[in-house]
Amino acid sequence: MANNRMLVGFFIASESIFFLMLILAYVNFHGSVTDGPTAVNSLNPVVTGIFSLFLFASSFTIWLAGKSLRNKNHFMLKVWILATIVLGAVFIFGQGLEWSGLLDKNITISRNVFGTTFFTLTGFHGFHVCVGLIMLSLLLGLALAGDFKGPKSDAVECISLYWHFVDGVWVVVFSVIYLWAFL
Amino acid sequence: MENLGGLFNPSSPEMEAMAGLTYYTIALCLVILGIIVIAVAYIIIRYRKKPGDDGEPYQNFGNIKLEIVWTVIPIAMVAVLFLLTCSTMKEVDPPAGDRDPDLVIIGHQWWWEIRYPSSGVSTSNEIHIPAGEKMLVRLESIDVIHDFWVPELGRKIDLVPGHPNYIWLVAGKPGVYLGACAEFCGDQHANMRIRVVAEPEAEFKKWLDGQLAIPRTPTGGIAGEGANLFQTMACMNCHTIRGTAAAARVGPDLTHLADRDTIGAGVLTNTPENLAKWLANPQRYKQGAFMPNMKLSDSEVKSIVAYLEALDEQ
Amino acid sequence: MSSRIPLVPENAVPLPSLKANNGLLSWVSSIDHKQIGIMYLIITLIYFLLGGLEALLIRVQLAHPGNDFLTPELYNQLFTMHGTTMIFFVVMPFLIGVGVYLLPLMIGARDMAFPRLNALSFWLFFFGGILLYYSFFTQSGAPDVGWFAYAPLSEKPFSLNKGPTYWALGLLASGIGSVASGLNNVVTILTMRTPGMTMRRIPLFVWMMLVTSLLLVFVIPIITAAFAMMLLDSILGATFFTPAHGGSAILWQHFFWGFGHPEVYILILPAFGIISEVIPVFSRKPIYGYEFVAASTVAIGLLSLGVWAHHMFAVGLGNAANAYFSLASMLIAIPTGVKVLNWVATMWGGRINFATPMLFGTAFIIEFVVGGLTGVAIASVPIDWVVTDSYFIVAHFHYAIFGGSVFAIFAGVYYWFPKFTGRMLSETLGKWHFWLTVIGFNMTFFIQHFLGVMGMPRRTYTYYDMPYWGSMNLISTIGAMILGLSVLIFVWNILVSLRHGRPAGDNPWNAWTLEWATTSPPAVENFELVPPVRGRRPLWDLAHPDMPDEPGAKTV
Ligand code: HEA
Ligand code: HEA
Ligand code: CUA
Ligand SMILES: [Cu+2]
Known about the structure:
The complex is a heterotrimer. By secondary structure, chain A is mostly helical. Chain A has six helices and no strands. In chain A, helix 1 (2-29) runs parallel beside helix 6 (154-182). The termini of chain A are far apart. The relative contact order of chain A is 0.19. Chain B is an alpha+beta fold. Chain B has three domains: 7-48 and 63-92, no CATH class; 103-208, Immunoglobulin-like (Sandwich), CATH 2.60.40; 221-310, Cupredoxins -  blue copper proteins (Immunoglobulin-like). Chain B is built from eight helices and twelve strands. Chain B has a five-stranded mixed β-sheet with strand order 3-2-1-5-8. The longest helix of chain B is centred in the N-terminal third of the chain and has 34 residues, at 13-46. Chain B is elongated, with a radius of gyration of 27 Å. The two termini of chain B are 43 Å apart. Chain C is an all-alpha fold. Chain C has one domain: Cytochrome c oxidase-like, subunit I domain (Cytochrome C Oxidase, Chain A, Up-down Bundle), CATH 1.20.210. In chain C, helix 2 packs antiparallel against helix 3 (72-106). At the B-C interface, helix 1, helix 2 and strand 9 of B face helix 3, helix 7, helix 8, helix 9 and helix 10 of C.
């Protein structure tokens, strides 16, 4: 049914507005921090950049999963979903490292507006990645149980649409937080 | 006609401009409303179903020319209204350049701190201005958002923490103009009132000089006792009395309290009796205000009243 | 084809039936759009009584200056809860509920596109409301910061109690439910139409619900994000809206009104839709200028996104910004005027049956225009500087919301009640309800225009004893009591007619849209047979095969 994809499309549009607001809040306070931690003096763009590559790569693998489904290649479908999960998990692991590093330096959500906006924005993104990982795991489970014979499945298509969205949000977030600070 | 206040009694050139615009606009609105009411009334009479009206009326689906007409006419009206809006806005709110403010108003929950930067005078809730003179006012807030509104003198303007604003304040002729805080700011938002006292230049100067005087602290009698109490009770943690150690800004500056017309931003008129009532239990008159009930005994109240009244007598 | 566990039920599988297992459980577990719609209507009626009761307490307190019937804290809680309840738990869910009930019927579908999602929306709304009202029973009491909860007043250290937290959580939950409704409606309207029901033939109510639903989808996330930030501020000590720690008080206002202004069109557009159904049927004429009424809705929807700062003219954003927002707001008068004039033109030349729905529909035009015109007046910046945050604004928005949305809701209830229940509402009680509403409403709110320009600020539990203020407020209070009486009559009418109302038959008003082609109340599967759709008024075409609406639509 076209219904499901349309639903997810509008849902993603709605979510985009949500993230747009968080980003606007970040932008609004950018440069208003006069002392204390800021993006420039407390973030490491290289490490986060490398972890970001994992997330970007996972967009590619979920696309390959969809392609395998269309080709009715059930085995590769499972492989690519698994790969996507692993890549996403590595990204989340990287986020966890970054957060714990900041918390160790006593940079928290309540420290100043940089902390507030940074943790909120990356936190909500990370939350969306985790939701995506859960959905992908469900997909994987169903696939292992023999579902998704192809060539089409709304479930696979909708979840990959969502996953691309989560990825796309990170492109913007990464640019706004990291590239803007260091370029 | 009796003075209805507000829009009906504009007392500054700015307010006159805004009232004029409001009247024009309301007149325009009434014309539009009139047309629609008349049309609907005519329809109700002419086209209501009457006994014996059977069958369906002529089925009419629309008319493009009419649609264009009733799109274009409102566009023209909106254009006129918008131009008037812009010109009035300019008239009411001319840019201040880099002039220093004549007056600084700082909003507190729930009273107004009034400062005259050039002379250093500080008072509360009552604003003295020379009639006919344009005062540039800077507005700040120390806690939440408040809004300065004196209906007969002009526009509203918010006092936003972290975002100072400026307006012009003018009173055409001498008089007392009442106002109030217009942005909801908590429990006692209703009792955060303003008095603007506009007086002729000479009187204003006199008032200013009076405010500048630093009173001597009385030493003997009950007033002297009051002075002691004031310094030993917690009063001085919150209030300022110039010439003494009390210099806090949590509550209003009390140096020339006796000069003011009201107590507690308008809840009581300022008489010694009312002052005593206020001191005995401010919460009774302004529940939730940030001046606690100090649990003073009657004699303590009496001496503090005597002290506060004595401050202004010199 | 797809997974064994279908994410959505196939349309061919019959939905659980209401008749099959009656009782409370069948309601709780229902995913039938009609049952869910009815639940929305019942719950919103209860909230309407609660919100109205709060309003009456407010009016009693204001009956004369210096009254001490309520404490300041309680007064502040009451107007906050009144505004929040009426907007988020009465008008908005009522319109969503009517939409949920009628959309599938009007487009000839058997249910919403996502029946389970539909139930989820309802229950989020339901529990959101409970969360909000639960605050009354906590130690710290209900929220008392106004329905737009301006920061920093709504945050620590100025609000140490938990009221605003309940407020944000309750609205967050029901807001997510509304987004889900919006998504569901959009997909339903775009994909579930019966053959022949093209987008140029759907009833205008469906058009308006489509635009409203798009607004839900695109503007609720704004406030969802803002609520999240507010909750982070209050629970984790973030500093978004606390100026003392580098945050911004004005940012909250941008977020709130960025949502809040489109929200008022969410409240009025479906009401316009109801009116666009009622007026033609009772005038016995097709809607005048269908395309223009539909297109103006889209224009209003788009314009509404760019006008939010007209609620912030006194904040000090600078005259350039003020001028922009002023112009954009005034422009909304143009598409709205197109609608109003098309309704009037629809009535013109008709053979009008002034049954209760039409009485409310006609009064709606006048009352709403009053509210709309004062809206255009306050869109002019200097006028807003005079009247903002005064009772003039209270008058403006009650004319727009009560005189607009609520009058339309009453019209809709009298119009569709026969379809929902199979019985007519009493016309006699309906007329009493109507006239008392008109009298009470205008008496309550018209005089507030004058109070506002004379200097009475809103949200004050007491006021100066200035000339006439006491008596004017008393008049307003008496008006509110009359309004309260009218509401009681309305409720009485519903209760009595449910049992003893005249049986309605399928199509008591001789109307033309598809919901009237089925039984009253409709069977679980909605239609036995959807009539062919060849024009905008399928039932007209059936009854008048000699002069169908289309083709060759006559434009005179
Ligand atoms: C159903 C709800 C509803 C509707 C439909 C409207 C409609 C409009 N509103 Fe209103 N408004 C509110 C609900 C609504 N409002 C609420 C709840 C608040 C207060 C919130 C709060 O502070 O608590 C508010 C506050 C509010 C303010 C802020 C006031 C302040 O706080 O200082 C402004 C300012 O511009 C405004 C403007 C408008 C305008 C321009 C319209 C326009 O859409 C009106 C358009 C309609 C017409 C104009 C009538 C028909 C047109 C014609 C007959 C054509 C000819 C007309 C002309 C050429 C003028 N509204
Ligand atoms: C849909 C929106 C809506 C509706 C329908 C109403 C309806 C009413 N409103 Fe409301 N109002 C708002 C939205 C609405 N209001 C908003 C958004 C605010 C701003 C809040 C804020 O500032 O934060 C506001 C503020 C507001 C104020 C200003 C308070 C202040 O600023 O201090 C006043 C004062 O008169 C008022 C009055 C009324 C009255 C008398 C009704 C009447 O029409 C009500 C009629 C209904 C009844 C009278 C119910 C009848 C029921 C009974 C008689 C018995 C009940 C029985 C049981 C519960 C068992 N409202
Ligand atoms: Cu200060 Cu309201
Ligand atoms: Cu608005």
